[in-house]
């Protein structure tokens, strides 16, 4: 069985065409059942006894995060999502509150930085919004921030940012680096980046349950106080079990195999959408991610298009408003983010439906 067939067979059939993994992937039967079984076990033996019994499953989930990030000695905690992880990191930060990030930084992340009183410095970018490798070293050296926050793949575009280059530049300058891997984790290679902290969400490319995420930190990066608070905070153990099972399935399928297939999926999606000449694909055809964003023809509202694709064609995509990347986006787009199991028929259905609902 191919990876695509195995991935599809491992989960309930989709009611239509699901092209929305950057928002929320489809969970497997195994992940769904593991979470349900844990909830059942809580009812049988008591929530705290069940949590002790689940410890090996959760340890396996944390071990998978260490393996996938190449952070072999990292502290790994389950969070409620990526924004929660950033909130934990910034509220814990003991240093000066000056942080550098890309112009295209995720809007909700900018809001969290502002809420914690951080002054924001923009990293230099080229004409595509990609980190400018020629300028970054000098920029960090001449006016160093206290902390660098780097989103390796955004929510608003499939452009992959050179995370290893920023890690190298931070290392040279002795600057701590936090990586937002909400879209990068279980999608792009996250191993051995050399970050001090890396976080992600469960429901996106890792295909775990909603409302959960992971935060991996270099030992000592979080204060003892915060570490202790996180250990004792109330948590949704069932969903941590579900995520741990999803990560186990990801590791078993082969992270490199999934990464390679997702690159193919991105290229196939852009090739299919390029046939619609009135819609403009924003990424280069061979951009190595499975996120594609398209700008609609004049007068066509992507919010309306997304709703009609669901209601009339049972095709799920994402509306991407400018608030996702307020420093870069000038108008809203439609995002198409299939997982490894997308077929040519799915992409043909999308292009036909897009043509129908946008009248092109
Ligand atoms: C989705 C996303 C987040 C926020 O993740 P939550 O789990 O919803 O908090 C942060 N950064 C990026 C790049 C995202 O795509």
Structure, explained:
The protein is α/β, with parallel strands linked by helices and 360 residues long. It folds into two domains: 3-27 and 254-354, Alpha-Beta Complex (Aspartate Aminotransferase, domain 1); 29-253, Aspartate Aminotransferase, domain 2. The protein is 44% helix and 14% strand. It contains 13 helices and 13 strands. It has helices at 3-9, 29-45, 47-53, 55-69, 82-92, 107-115, 133-142, 163-173, 224-232, 237-253, 255-274, 302-313, 344-358, and strands at residues 17-18, 75-79, 98-101, 119-122, 147-151, 177-180, 197-201, 213-217, 280-281, 292-295, 315-316, 318-320, 333-336. Strand 5, helix 8 and strand 6 (177-180) form a beta-alpha-beta unit. The chain is globular and about 60 Å long. The chain binds pyridoxal-5'-phosphate (PLP). The site of pyridoxal-5'-phosphate (PLP) has 13 residues, from helix 5.
Strand content: 5-15%
SSE order, one letter for each helix or strand: HEHHHEHEHEHEHEEEHHHEEHEEEH
- Kindly state the mean pLDDT as a whole number? 97
> What percent of the residues sit in helical stretches (DSSP H or I)?
40-55%
Count of structural domains: 2
Uncertain runs with pLDDT below 50, 5 residues or more? none
* Sheet with the most strands: spatial strand order: 2-8-7-6-5-3-4
Tell me the number of helical segments per DSSP (H or I, 4 or more residues long): 13
**Total count of strands:** 13
- Calculate the terminal CA-CA distance, rounded to whole Å: 38 Å
- Molecular shape: globular
CATH architecture descriptor of the largest domain: 3-Layer(aba) Sandwich
User: What structural class should be given to the helix and strand makeup?
Assistant: alpha/beta
CATH class of the largest domain: Alpha Beta
Radius of gyration: 20 Å
CATH superfamily of the largest domain: Type I PLP-dependent aspartate aminotransferase-like (Major domain)
Largest sheet geometry: 7 strands, mixed
Function: Probably catalyzes the conversion of hercynylcysteine sulfoxide to ergothioneine.
Protein name: Probable hercynylcysteine sulfoxide lyase
Family: Belongs to the class-V pyridoxal-phosphate-dependent aminotransferase family. EgtE subfamily.
Keywords: Lyase, Pyridoxal phosphate
């Amino acid at each position: 069985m191919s990876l695509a067939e195995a991935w599809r067979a491992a989960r309930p059939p989709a009611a239509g065409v699901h092209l929305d993994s950057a928002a929320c992937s489809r969970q497997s039967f195994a992940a769904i059942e593991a979470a349900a079984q844990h909830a059942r076990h809580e009812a049988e033996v008591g929530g705290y006894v069940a949590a002790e019994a689940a410890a090996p499953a959760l340890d396996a989930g944390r071990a998978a995060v260490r393996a996938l990030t190449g952070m072999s000695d990292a502290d790994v905690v389950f969070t409620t999502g990526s924004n929660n992880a950033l909130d934990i990191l910034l509220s814990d930060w003991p240093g000066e509150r000056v942080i550098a990030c890309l112009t295209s930084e995720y809007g909700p992340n900018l809001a969290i930085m502002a809420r914690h009183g951080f002054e924001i410095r923009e990293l230099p970018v080229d004409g595509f919004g990609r980190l400018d490798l020629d300028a970054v070293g000098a920029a960090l050296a001449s006016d160093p921030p206290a902390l660098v926050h780097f989103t390796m793949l955004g929510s608003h575009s499939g452009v992959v940012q050179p995370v290893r280059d920023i890690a190298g530049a931070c290392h040279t300058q002795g600057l701590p680096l936090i990586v937002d891997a909400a879209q990068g984790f279980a999608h792009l290679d996250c191993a051995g980046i050399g970050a001090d902290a890396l976080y992600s969400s469960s429901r996106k490319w890792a295909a775990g349950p909603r409302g959960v995420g992971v935060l991996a930190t270099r030992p000592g990066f979080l204060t003892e106080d915060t570490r202790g608070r996180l250990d004792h905070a109330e948590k949704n153990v069932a969903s941590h079990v579900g995520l741990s099972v999803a990560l186990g399935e990801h590791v078993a399928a082969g992270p490199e195999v999934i990464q390679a297939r997702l690159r193919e999926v991105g290229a196939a999606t852009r090739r299919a959408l390029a046939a619609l000449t009135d819609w403009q694909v924003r990424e280069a055809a061979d951009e190595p991610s499975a996120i594609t964003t398209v700008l609609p023809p004049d007068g066509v509202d992507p919010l309306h298009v997304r709703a009609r694709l669901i209601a009339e064609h049972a095709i799920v995509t994402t509306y991407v408003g400018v608030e996702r990347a307020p420093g870069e986006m000038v108008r809203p787009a439609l995002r198409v983010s299939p997982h490894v199991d997308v077929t040519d028929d799915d992409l043909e259905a999308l292009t036909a439906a897009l043509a129908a609902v946008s009248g092109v």
